Amino acid sequence: MVGAVVAALAGVLSHGAGFYPWLDLIAHFAPVYMAVALGCMVIAILTRLPGRGVILVASAVAIVAGGVLVGPEVSRSNGSEAPFDREGQIKVIQINALRTNADIGRVADWLIAQDPDVVTVSEARHDLRDLLVRRAGWSTAGAHGSLMIFTREPYVKMDRPRLRAGGDLSFVNATYATPRGPIEIVTTHLDWPTSPLVAGQVRDLEDVVGRLPRERMILTGDFNAAPWSAELRRLDTTLGLVRRDRAVATWPAQLSGRAWRVPILPIDHIYAGRGWSTVKVERGPWLGSDHYPLVVTLAPVVQP
User: Which of 58, 273, 303 is closest to 182 using CA atoms?
Assistant: First the structure.
């Protein structure tokens, strides 16, 4: 009974995240309390536990409350779709490499083997940067920080919007030339939803994106926010971009240093402007980090 009641309470509280930001942490774990409630419901149906009615009602409340948050993510559009043979495709990889990753060579091996057009790295390390530059000959934007962009060709310019006074957003952006015109690539890393800084970071990201050309923009990062959180639902609405991943869980990828094959939360994301169509979205393998890589293939929208 306790599990069902706790799940129901979590479900109800998670809907207050828009009014009390600390409740957004509960909203992130909607799939977890829904799974707990479903398990309690099954047990209550198959057995004659005391308080069976309370368990069934509480479980139903939790499942419905969580479903209201998770359902729209499963059913939403991730942009116009393009066939696999569309010309002008670009492959984008977002990966949190983990500062303490003991197998950085495997990260480099996999990234190079993917033959991507763009790689954005959160918790970037200089040893990984040096490996990729030496072995693949890739160019780097943000080479001296913890956020890096790797591409085959060097960027044309870095027109970095100035943050408001006291702004605490970590981001790197650069403009790249392509046969179909320039594209703007932005990568960021937001704090955990428990951080008092995250609300300001969200406002700063909205401002940064709004001051750059968005039609062919690609925005990536470790957002530390699930799609059903108030934080990411706000960004989905305000950024003027389309999030191309849809419920692709990337965290946690490991527990106690060992691969965890059942990630729970989609917290790494790739957005793109409306000048892009989505070809394919997939999750990469475990590479010694606590995040799985996120891989999105895009193609230019064909004008009628």
Answer: 273
What phi and psi, each to the nearest 5 degrees, are found at residue 41?
A: -65, -45
Assigned token pair, 109? 């091996």
180-232 pLDDT, tens digit per residue, is: 899 999 999 999 988 889 999 999 999 999 999 999 999 999 999 999 999 99
3-state secondary structure of 38: helix
- The verdict on 64 and 106 lying in the same domain is no
**CA pair distance 52, 50, nearest whole angstrom:** 5
**pLDDT tens digits for range 49-88:** 777 788 888 999 999 999 999 999 999 999 899 999 999 9
- Residue 85 belongs to some domain of the structure: no
Query: Whole-angstrom Cα distance, residue 54 to residue 68?
Result: 21
Q: Which residues contact 144 (CB under 8 A, 6 or more apart)?
A: none
Q: Which domain holds residue 35?
A: 2-75
